[in-house]
């Protein structure tokens, strides 16, 4: 709290709120001079602490009092003294409550740690109030303590200090505000909540008292205005200020009511979601109606999941895409979702995604096309063929724009802006091409892919770097020069896949050592190791979900595991129905809500909910073996590509947005809950 000499203002890490009034401050607890002591980090909260102290002392204050309560803060409560800690100790003993402005700065402060330690040894945690200003405060219900792996805003001295999860005031938003006072409605609301606890008054009574005091001020000034003409101007100004304060207090009451209503809706939404899942096996229609009602009350994650799971069903294709001699027909949606790109023989075709009508055909390859992708803007298609060439095609005209020879080429990927193209060969070679000049910039050695869809390389979201599974370790190269800028060392065996996170700050790799690793791009350091549950299996692939919230890993036994990307905790363990030995394909939906999986030996794909690992249904097929999976940009449609069978399109609204789910629910059950059902399942009545 105070890192300077005792005769100077310390560079402060803690501060106290004097909550009790002085002799002219009104009633106060007789045994304490201060109602509260504020502990904080000057570096982190040097601006917020004075504003909070001032607000607490002024809220609901009669005009003729100096302050409503006294609050200790070191820079206002301490004089020049040869014993800094002695003064702080004296202030702590004179305080009824301890307010901790929680932030990473205060968590690391020795003064804050010392003040917290004093309070826990001499007082009770019941009078220790937490105000988060930065960082994280996470409670672990299992251990009945803070989750210290994720909590960054509290000193470790608070471990096991609370018997139950404490409620804390969140002022994280206030750090971005240059001026804070009771005229700021949100800040006034926060001050009112804290003052309510300190003064032992219900929030509505305290706000009412604040309103009454402002009204008294206005009346006093009006009387003075009648007696003294010159004072009338002052009375007018005070009246305006009182009116503003009244409006602010009224808004606080309204905000409090809104917050209370929101909590009721949240609780009821979660309750209905649970009831919906309990009814799923007994009455699917009622389950859908209850989940829909839960979503309308408040779209909590629990309500959305319940509605998604209640709509579970097996889906038949809505459109079959014939072509490519029906020997191999792989498929992928265009970036805007209006077209489907198919390939498999010497040609690639562009089809209307809703009618299946042929719109364009790309002709020129002399052997089978192994992979085809769109450029990010959807105007150009890249194809890699067994004729050892990589070609670019204009989507509008169907004409060939570029051609490169790359022996063994089996796939190619565009950089973000389309100026770079990376082609990969079956023999483990990678060539980086400058699209404009048609020249190759660099040549790298990679591992040999087991099949063409493995993510052996990944462009950074801004296109500036490329991550590759190098011959020995994963590497990151500069996309302009092709020079290596980073090597990731740590896997005990060869890395099999690599991918940037959507924000470009992390990389995920999988390895034959049965682990996936998440790396910090800026430092090259491994931040998390995900240990696959089957110890002797080899991890073949690891991918981030498009929203960055999840990681999926698959091994060589067709086992897929879902992980929380932030915590590294396992979410679900998905076993393929085809059993070990069958290579597994998987794709996240663009919104990250769902996952498609299929094995090389199956004509049927499975749909899963990412957050829970629950199976949502199957994409049915009775012929061929699946080789490609693709979602539309809205996540509401899916296309499956196969060998020995045509590609198939499916309506998959169960993976869409909340609005998509509600539309699907209405079509599935076109009625409302009856009054009897609402009473039975404790659902609220319909609103007029």
What would you note in describing this structure?
Helix 7 crosses helix 9 (231-278), helix 8 (203-227) packs antiparallel against helix 9 and helix 10 packs antiparallel against helix 11 (301-310). Among the domains are: 34-201, Toll/interleukin-1 receptor homology (TIR) domain (Rossmann fold), CATH 3.40.50; 210-310. It contains 13 helices and 39 strands. The chain is of the alpha+beta class. The strands form nine sheets. Strands 8, 9, 10, 11, 12, 37, 38 and 39 form an eight-stranded antiparallel sheet that branches. A five-stranded parallel sheet has the order 2-1-3-4-7, sandwiched between helices. A four-stranded antiparallel sheet has the order 13-14-15-16, with no helix packed on it.
Oligomer: single chain
Can you identify the CATH class of the domain at 34-201?
Alpha Beta
| Most strands sheet | 8 strands, antiparallel
Low confidence ranges: 1-30
Q: Shape, please?
A: elongated
End-to-end C-alpha gap: 57 Å
- What is the CATH homology-level superfamily of the domain at 34-201? Toll/interleukin-1 receptor homology (TIR) domain
Q: Helix fraction?
A: 25-40%
CATH architectural grouping of the domain at 34-201 = 3-Layer(aba) Sandwich
DSSP strand tally: 39
Q: How many helices does DSSP assign?
A: 13
Secondary structure class reads alpha+beta
Q: If you average the pLDDT, what whole number results?
A: 86
The fraction of residues assigned to DSSP E strands is 25-35%
Over the alpha carbons, how many angstroms does the gyration radius reach? 32 Å
CATH fold title of the domain at 34-201: Rossmann fold
